[in-house]
Amino acid sequence: MEKKYTLLSGETVSLEELEHREEEFLDTLMEMARRNISYFEIYRMAIGPGSIALRGRNQVNRSILKSPLYEAARDIATRAGIAQGLILAPEYENERAKAPQDFSMISVMQAADLIGVSRAAVYKAIEKGKLRCHKIGNVTVVEKASALDYRDRRNVKESSQDVLAEVKMTGFTPTAVSPPLRVPARKAHSKAKAVSHRRHAKKKASKSS
Length: 209
Known about the structure:
elongated, 8 helices, Arc Repressor Mutant, subunit A
């Protein structure tokens, strides 16, 4: 590992005094970022409660905040968030004001959670025009109403597919079912009356014999 690390701010921090396990920790974070692991997972591992950067603690104090290990870990996580379009890059900071404040827009990750799909599936739906989105700097945001509508349409489609799968598995189709025989009320009454007359005649004949 390099003994110096350049932060997004341009500042350089020295990693010369890091222990071997701390160097491995940063290497792991960089590898996760290269593999495009979810930013939130990288963030939790980098500076979440109990992380190596926090020295196993659950909270950050001033000493940890200024430590080279914490600064490098946080920077790696932030870069991953920028690459994944979840965090506004420093060069687009002036576009932050364009972000709506009425919660009508959500992040790609939030849209994925809302719909119940992966982040990649959300981007695919955006490319196909199935989800409405907007670009603010390097960040892609999804219209919440569009995500809700897309989720509902997927649920209806999945329900239909489940029914078709069951029909295919059982071989039972609605068209194979004969409709129930319905006897008009007047005919049913006449039929019942005729049966009653026959029974009465049989009883009378048996008594006569």
